Amino acid sequence: MKDNKTKIVATxxxxxxxxxIIKQLIQCGVNVFRLNFSHGTHDQHRANYNNIRNTAKDLxxxxxxxxDLQGPKIRVGKFANDKVVLTEGDMFILSCDSDELGSxxxxxxxxxxxxxxxxxxxxxxxxxxxxxxxxxxxxAKEINTIVIVGGTLGxxxxxxxxTADLSVAAMTKKDIEDLAFGVSLGVDWVALSFVRxxxxxxxxxxxxxxxxxxxxxxxxxxKPAAITNFDEILATADGIMVARGDxxxxxxxxxxPMLQKRLIRKSRQAGKPVVTATQMLETMITSxxxxxxxxxxxxxxxxxxxxxxxxxxxxxxxxxPLQAVTTMRTIANSVEKDDEYTARMLERQMHTExxxxxxxxxxxxxxxxxxxxxxxxxxSSSGATALRVARNRIQTNVIAISPKxxxxxxxxxSWGIHPVLSPDANNTNDMVTISAAIIHKCNAAEIGDRYxxxxxxxxxxxxxxxxxxxEKLT
Length: 474
Description:
Blueprint: E1 7-11, H1 19-28, E2 32-36, H2 42-59, E3 64-68, E4 83-86, E5 91-95, E6 106-108, H3 114-117, E7 123-126, E8 131-139, E9 142-149, E10 151-154, E11 159-160, H4 173-185, E12 189-192, H5 198-210, E13 216-221, H6 224-228, H7 230-236, E14 239-243, H8 244-250, H9 256-270, E15 274-277, H10 292-304, E16 308-311, H11 313-316, H12 321-336, H13 339-347, H14 356-370, E17 375-379, H15 384-390, E18 397-402, H16 405-411, E19 417-421, H17 428-442, E20 450-456, E21 465-472
Parallel strand pairs: 1-2, 1-16, 2-3, 3-12, 5-6, 12-13, 13-14, 14-15, 15-16, 17-18, 17-20, 18-19
Antiparallel strand pairs: 4-10, 5-9, 7-8, 7-11, 8-9, 20-21
Helix pairs in contact: 1-2, 1-12, 5-7, 7-9, 10-12, 14-15
């Protein structure tokens, strides 16, 4: 076992969606592929899904697939000349009752109720904050603004309104259709964009249940309201994505690093996988090497204890997708070998919940560390026991055994977990036999090395973790 403990998520796109590149990305260290439904057709996503599954099977790898919904992103419409140049002091109108091509003076918006949600003096940000306007008045269904930071505004650029409490629905018609399509394919995770409150997740959960899907639900934290309501969002979601792009637009940039640390810490305490995303190696879209600042950013997220780090445009449309993944892997490998990193993970002890599975999982982690076990084996049908182990961030290698391929694929995003598909044990002797065979197959230990097993009796029943066993490999 030579896997990094910090997992890598890579976004597929035109630069990386061929079977040959997908194979190389997996070999470079990708654990989870993100299908970005803001772009591409259903046919393209189906082809990508099938290519990932077929390639993973050929390589004998467990690879997760994350569907990322577009969400209710508010955008300007199209311009007659594709773009306009706005100058400070210009008057500019946002029209909520028309889809006419825009001009130097006016453009349509995708959210037709926007005029109801903004008031005078609200600041609107275009194109990730590059341009800024202030609302002067609302007349009928037109928002009159004045430009305070000018620049070039192109077709379909995003609009952020940090001060407004938008009434836009959590899921658009497109999101609902995309979710239904994705779960029919069999995606492992569904990421909900622009989450503001836990009710947004309940709506997405309703649609997952409607389609009898066992996909896990990830909340993307990219709105100020999500920070305010984070505790209830965390309690409802199965995982968290710290989406620093929009978050950094709607909040002051200097706030984001501290928020990142807090969100990662809380997610880890809750035993929920957390992904750090957006602009991690941005210059590698066009350059074969990152800046030193980007390398430090990736390392910092790993030091924070994130489960996974994500590449977006770097692998989707960049010129160097393989180099970007390799760079992430080498940074993770370097950090994880550092004594400071080990010390940080060990000093952040997680509170043990007052239930048997959590107490047993925590005790097993302590035993594995104290006896310097080479590997720990978790029999985890649903993946819950493996998640409890992962949040402890122990340095011992961890193999999670499940009879369910879906559980294995969902665990591929979790820190330090090496998921293996295998029939469940029927008794304790069977448990030891299966553990030893898989340890040998994974080259995780040598004969005579000690290892720790966690499991539950009765075997095969979720939520029954109540056994710790220490064995020597034979």
